[in-house]
Amino acid sequence: MAEQFASKRNIRFMLYEVFNAEELTQYEFYQDHSRETFDMIIDTVWKMGVDFLYPLYQELDKNPPQFVDGQAKVHPATRQFMRMCGEGGWINANWSYEDGGQQVPLLITFVNSLIMAAANCGLSGFPALTTGAANLILNFGSQELKDLYLEKMVSGEWQGTMALTEPDAGSSLADIKTTAVDTGEGYYKIKGQKIFISAGDTDATDNTIHLMLAKIEGAPPGVRGISLFVVPKYRYAKDGSLERNDIWCTGIEHKMGFKGSPICTLVMGENNDCHGYLVGEPHMGLSYMFQMMNEARIGVGIGAVGKATAAYYDALEYTKQRLQGRKPSQKDPTAPQVPLIEHADIRRMLLFQRAVCEGGLSLALQLSKYVDLAKVGVEPEKHELLVDFLVPIVKSFPSEYGILSTSAAMQCLGGYGYCQDFPVEQHFRDIRIDPIHEGTTGIQAQDLLGRKTTMKNGEAYRLFMEEVKRTMAEAAEIPELKPQAEALAKGLEVMDDVTSYLLKVRKEKGPEEFLADANLYLEMTGLLAIGWQWLLQGVVAYRALQNQPSEGDTKFYRGKLITLKYFYTYELPKVNTLAHVLKTSQGLTANMDISLFDEE
Ligand SMILES: Cc1cc2nc3c(=O)[nH]c(=O)nc-3n(C[C@H](O)[C@H](O)[C@H](O)COP(=O)(O)OP(=O)(O)OC[C@H]3O[C@@H](n4cnc5c(N)ncnc54)[C@H](O)[C@@H]3O)c2cc1C
Hints:
Blueprint: H1 8-18, H2 35-53, H3 57-62, E1 66-68, E2 71-73, H4 76-88, H5 106-140, H6 143-154, E3 158-163, E4 179-182, E5 188-198, E6 207-216, E7 226-232, E8 234-236, E9 242-244, E10 247-252, E11 263-268, E12 275-278, H7 285-321, H8 344-375, H9 380-413, H10 424-431, H11 441-452, H12 455-476, H13 482-509, H14 511-515, H15 518-545, H16 551-571, H17 574-584
Helix pairs in contact: 2-5, 5-6, 5-7, 5-8, 7-8, 7-9, 7-10, 8-9, 8-15, 8-16, 9-10, 9-11, 9-12, 9-15, 11-15, 12-13, 12-15, 13-15, 13-17, 15-16, 15-17
Flavin-adenine dinucleotide binds at residues 161-165, 170-172, 196-198, 255, 258, 263, 433, 436-437, 439-440, 442-443.
């Protein structure tokens, strides 16, 4: 196992050189922070990653949760970790002082998420889910719900979940069947079944608080009939003591990866006594949940970056040490073998991984900064629209390309990459979930093309273009980066052309054909967004090199520039192929006869 699972140097570069995290401290909400406090936070989480999380990474995989006595028995370290997160204030670090938080920018807490996910993705999910669930209660719940649940959740004593999926409703939440009947006594009776609920019922905490979607009797059909409830495993009795609620875990799934974190099947109301407490207004559940899902989707993107990054550092270390073969120019068979990293093809695969990991991280942090700026009232409408536009990309690009990146890491290790001696095969299995949960890539693609490109009369799309063009203009001033700036400009023209074409398809041929290749559109946009982020990093690295940095820094910045060139040479050109398919597929899949899949 490599010593390193992420790069502190790269984190510093992103935070302070690219995204100027200190700039946020000029706003009242963040004014008590400084580079020192940011560093302190990150150093503390890094230490937790090195000393606690990373050493347990393979152990959790080898000792997955078991279903015992009606709940998931997880590794004992999970309980310890949840309490560590509670005591460290990591679960609600972004909250205001008034609400008990530390007013830390998302830019910083998402770096924490990166570190935790890279060190041990299985464990990192537990506090992240609790943060999301607690945020929903904080933002939309009544004072009573806040008073009853938040303290225990943010202390890590109680687990939070998001309970959406049902046997007949995965991607299509409009079809959930779980019902809620108002008793008139301050609670609803909940009945139904949920599946795949992460951390749905474990022995890591003393209680589990589900943020659950259900339909109130008589609600309108579809998504407009969905409400949000707090459904605790142990509810408060009238005398204030805790009593068992009628929600039961009936089993856990056996997964290919991400094994530290169990997914549970839950049955509510078997004894007609499952109490649920309405959050906010009736029928507003999905829009509230979208807040949590947006955070969760950014979190999935960051998590995927983390896993791919850890795999990259394994590959990097291995290829520096393993001796194999000779350079093509070396004809003497008795000459010593060279380390794998001497081979150009290995370097290509390493650069690919770096381009995906550092490009993905950059995009996720860009998005986090928009969230932080919107929160303190800096052009909130603009920044919120940019967030909306970028969420499906930040969720999907690192998830999909992260799989390829982790696969490339495995390839660098050859046969050992496929064996359990090294954790790369585990990273490969662990990351495979990311294009599936929190909305599949297909759903993200429909969201981007079907909603985000045209929302507010195309304003979000226009703002995205504007941001990219601003970076392009800066890069175009630097002769060394001019070719890449021009390539990105051409890429944007291609995107504009394809978008107009597809909007015409929607008008003339309808939504089926319009959305048929939404995945390709998402990939194309993702490549352009990552190209933008590489150019942004390139401008910073180029300028830093003009100031005679130390030898170590010179290598770091030159490493950035070569990765940027790699991305523009090997990856960005894929935009043209994707655009070509998008313009020529002519509804091939949308209009085909499905009986053509039949075989005698
Ligand atoms: C490890 C893990 C953790 C999870 N954690 C949670 C959790 O904590 N809480 C929770 O509520 N859920 C959770 N889930 C469930 C997860 O969110 C769903 O699995 C996911 O949303 C997909 O739903 P599904 O499995 O029913 O697949 P389906 O919806 O059946 O989708 C199957 C395929 O069909 C495609 N598809 C579906 N509908 C359409 C359409 N209209 N147009 C085009 N393509 C379509 C999808 O993109 C996908 O490729 C988890 C799942 C896993 C495996």
